[in-house]
């Protein structure tokens, strides 16, 4: 049934972390492995979709049949999403985009000064990529992710409305859950329904999620 649902459909998906450079040897990153986004991209390609995957720095192979574009920072990811969103029927924002970047990356390696005990970095806000997409007139069906360490469902509902998403997938991270793992548990929330997808492999969850989105698209 999945094979029918995604035939002729174009999926744009972001995955992985972003790296925000401090200087030529240091960056601010996060613990996203990219596994959930890559699993969705793979399952969608298997289900017949044309998939473009915009990926932050991860150590994962490109799923078969998927067009992959590598980026490093949130600003680079944003630029690629702006190129591709209009052609997509569905945009899934699974990337863990850094909320802030270093205002001015140092051209040379920052040196440790022996008589200084602290230093500060000036951070500025990154663009909210998924919120930008939902603000466009020609926006596709937009699915966000919410990785939280507490109050998972209520934070997710808040993001659904604030970012004007069509659907959000909430998951608990920390305490051995979510990040860097092969399995996960998701709560899928839209204006009309809340579905609990019990703990299973990210590949199993991806098929279930694509069925839910596929129905919403048709
Ligand atoms: O980081 P946050 O929990 O707000 O992420 C919620 C959703 O927003 C995710 O789908 C994430 O990919 C997206 N996001 C984004 N651009 C940002 C921050 C988050 O697209 N700068």
UniProtKB/TrEMBL annotation:
<comment type="similarity">
    <text>In the C-terminal section; belongs to the PPC synthetase family.</text>
</comment>
<keyword id="KW-0288">FMN</keyword>
<feature type="binding site">
    <location>
        <position position="109"/>
    </location>
    <ligand>
        <name>CTP</name>
    </ligand>
</feature>
<feature type="binding site">
    <location>
        <begin position="127"/>
        <end position="130"/>
    </location>
    <ligand>
        <name>CTP</name>
    </ligand>
</feature>
<comment type="pathway">
    <text>Cofactor biosynthesis; coenzyme A biosynthesis; CoA from (R)-pantothenate: step 2/5.</text>
</comment>
<comment type="function">
    <text>Catalyzes two sequential steps in the biosynthesis of coenzyme A. In the first step cysteine is conjugated to 4'-phosphopantothenate to form 4-phosphopantothenoylcysteine. In the second step the latter compound is decarboxylated to form 4'-phosphopantotheine.</text>
</comment>
<keyword id="KW-0210">Decarboxylase</keyword>
<feature type="region of interest" description="Phosphopantothenate--cysteine ligase">
    <location>
        <begin position="11"/>
        <end position="218"/>
    </location>
</feature>
<dbReference type="GO" id="GO:0004633">
    <property type="term" value="F:phosphopantothenoylcysteine decarboxylase activity"/>
</dbReference>
<keyword id="KW-0460">Magnesium</keyword>
<keyword id="KW-0436">Ligase</keyword>
<keyword id="KW-0511">Multifunctional enzyme</keyword>
<feature type="binding site">
    <location>
        <position position="99"/>
    </location>
    <ligand>
        <name>CTP</name>
    </ligand>
</feature>
<feature type="binding site">
    <location>
        <position position="163"/>
    </location>
    <ligand>
        <name>CTP</name>
    </ligand>
</feature>
<comment type="function">
    <text>Catalyzes two steps in the biosynthesis of coenzyme A. In the first step cysteine is conjugated to 4'-phosphopantothenate to form 4-phosphopantothenoylcysteine, in the latter compound is decarboxylated to form 4'-phosphopantotheine.</text>
</comment>
<feature type="domain" description="DNA/pantothenate metabolism flavoprotein C-terminal">
    <location>
        <begin position="7"/>
        <end position="214"/>
    </location>
</feature>
<keyword id="KW-0285">Flavoprotein</keyword>
<dbReference type="GO" id="GO:0004632">
    <property type="term" value="F:phosphopantothenate--cysteine ligase activity"/>
</dbReference>
<protein>
    <recommendedName>
        <fullName>Coenzyme A biosynthesis bifunctional protein CoaBC</fullName>
        <ecNumber>4.1.1.36</ecNumber>
        <ecNumber>6.3.2.5</ecNumber>
    </recommendedName>
</protein>
<keyword id="KW-0479">Metal-binding</keyword>
<feature type="binding site">
    <location>
        <position position="145"/>
    </location>
    <ligand>
        <name>CTP</name>
    </ligand>
</feature>
<comment type="similarity">
    <text>In the N-terminal section; belongs to the HFCD (homo-oligomeric flavin containing Cys decarboxylase) superfamily.</text>
</comment>
<comment type="pathway">
    <text>Cofactor biosynthesis; coenzyme A biosynthesis; CoA from (R)-pantothenate: step 3/5.</text>
</comment>
<keyword id="KW-0456">Lyase</keyword>
<feature type="binding site">
    <location>
        <position position="159"/>
    </location>
    <ligand>
        <name>CTP</name>
    </ligand>
</feature>
């Amino acid at each position: 049934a999945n094979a029918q649902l995604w035939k002729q459909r174009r999926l744009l998906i972001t995955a992985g972390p972003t790296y925000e450079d401090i200087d030529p040897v240091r960056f601010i990153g996060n613990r996203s492995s990219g596994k959930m986004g890559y699993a969705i991209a793979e399952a969608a390609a298997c289900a017949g979709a044309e998939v473009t995957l915009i990926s932050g720095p991860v150590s994962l192979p490109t799923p078969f049949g998927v067009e992959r574009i590598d980026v490093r920072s949130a600003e680079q990811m944003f630029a690629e999403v702006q190129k591709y969103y209009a052609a997509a029927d569905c945009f899934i924002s699974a990337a863990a985009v850094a909320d802030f970047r270093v205002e001015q990356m140092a051209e040379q390696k920052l040196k440790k000064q022996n008589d200084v005990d602290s230093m500060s970095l000036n951070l500025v806000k990154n663009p909210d990529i998924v919120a930008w997409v939902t603000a466009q007139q020609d926006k596709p069906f937009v699915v966000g992710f919410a990785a939280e360490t507490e109050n998972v469902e209520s934070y997710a509902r808040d993001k659904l409305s604030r970012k004007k998403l069509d659907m959000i997938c909430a998951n608990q991270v920390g305490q051995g859950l979510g990040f860097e793992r092969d399995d996960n548990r998701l709560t899928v929330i839209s204006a009309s329904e809340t579905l609990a997808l019990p703990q299973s492999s990210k590949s199993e969850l991806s098929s279930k999620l694509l069925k839910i989105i596929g129905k919403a698209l048709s």
